[in-house]
Design a protein that fits this description.
This protein is of the alpha/beta class. The chain contains eleven helices and eleven strands. A seven-stranded mixed sheet has the order 3-4-7-8-9-10-11. Strands 1-2-6-5 form a four-stranded mixed sheet. Strand 8, helix 5 and strand 9 form a beta-alpha-beta unit. The chain is globular.
């Protein structure tokens, strides 16, 4: 592994940028328990934890906090897979099983929030890898992170597939009383067979919708990012209807659909999975994604229209642009793809 490749500014010149941590500060651990068998954790002490989002990304937020790198959810389509190549790890199995843990994230965040240079901007979490993945059950970084944000009345949002977020319900309620807190749960489909193969390390979709219900019942605004809608596997009108109906029944405040995108790193892994599980679809995917990482605009618009029509039928609507309490799609650029790259 090449730890020196991790820098404060991943878009900058690695020869000039300071490393996020010293390689001599890495501790590697394995745990012989069923839930962590085959997984290696690399514990580091980060020098910085608040990261600026590159302007070219068109994200609706400028700052993120990511306490983990790599993800045991093992979603075959995860766009963040490419980041593991910076460590000379592969973007497939290594991304699922070699997890970097920033063990001092809460105290570093508290220090950065107290800095005179910090102006209390919104911080998004879970937009790279899930901060409530399985490792969080052992390392418990999020309670300290949320407490720091609460104590500084700093607005934040969380995007997750993890039911473990309910462990921190009291902290989220406390924070929401004094600052702007937005929660989005990712549920792209409710098809059980598809879930078991494409998102093998995640809680079942119905359990994630239970999270939406619980948060809503406790007065915490919660929307659903219906992502990804997977072409030819999860986009049949009956599947879309079943998913939107379940989302509406959960009490979600909004639903925002996003079609699968396949960036380098994720594309190779997903296509290998597709060739093994659905070989008859390989050529169709090659044609659909022939122009790059994104499905054609006509396809994205068709899915968006169908989901929004269903949402109106079931009494919920899309997240409105500019709502600070929800993770939403960015403003579209004049040219090029308009899809948010969160998952």
């Amino acid at each position: 592994m090449r730890w020196e490749n991790l820098t404060v500014d991943p878009a900058g010149d690695r020869a000039r940028d300071a490393a996020l941590f010293g390689a001599d500060a890495v501790t590697t651990r394995t745990f012989d328990t069923p839930e962590f068998r085959g997984i290696t954790f690399h514990e580091i002490r980060a020098r910085s934890i608040v990261n600026r989002v590159p302007g070219a990304s068109r994200m609706p937020f400028e700052w993120t906090v990511n306490p983990y790198r790599g993800c045991t959810h093992a979603c075959v389509y995860c766009f963040a897979r490419k980041t593991h190549s910076y460590l000379d790890l592969d973007t497939g199995i290594d991304f699922d099983s070699q997890i970097v843990v920033k063990v001092n994230a809460p105290e570093v965040l508290r220090r950065q929030l107290a800095s005179r240079r910090w102006h209390g901007d919104h911080i998004a979490m879970g937009t790279n890898v899930d901060c409530y993945q399985r490792a969080e059950g052992r390392y418990r970084l999020m309670p300290g992170i949320i407490a720091a944000l609460r104590d500084h009345a700093n607005p934040f949002s969380i995007l997750t597939k993890g039911t473990l977020i309910l462990r921190d319900l009291d902290l989220l309620k406390q924070a929401s009383e004094i600052t702007d807190v937005g929660i989005s749960v990712s549920v792209g489909f409710t098809d059980t067979e598809l879930w078991r193969t494409v998102e093998p390390g995640t809680p079942a979709p119905e359990r994630r919708l239970d999270v939406v219900s619980t948060l809503s019942e406790h007065g915490i605004d919660c929307g659903v990012l219906m992502a990804p809608v997977i072409p030819f596997l999860g986009d049949h009108p009956d599947q879309l209807r079943a998913t939107v109906r379940a989302i509406a029944a959960s009490g979600a405040g909004s639903v925002t659909p996003l079609v699968l995108h396949l960036r380098p790193g994720a594309r190779e892994w997903f296509m290998a999975w597709l060739g093994h599980h659905h070989p008859h679809l390989v050529r169709r995917y090659e044609r659909l994604y022939a122009e790059g990482a994104y499905a054609p605009k006509w396809y994205q618009r068709r899915i968006t229209r169908q989901v929004h029509e269903l949402a109106r039928e079931y009494g919920i609507g899309p997240a409105r642009a500019g709502m600070s309490r929800r993770i939403t799609a960015p403003e579209p650029a004049p040219v090029g793809p308009t899809q948010l790259t969160l998952l």
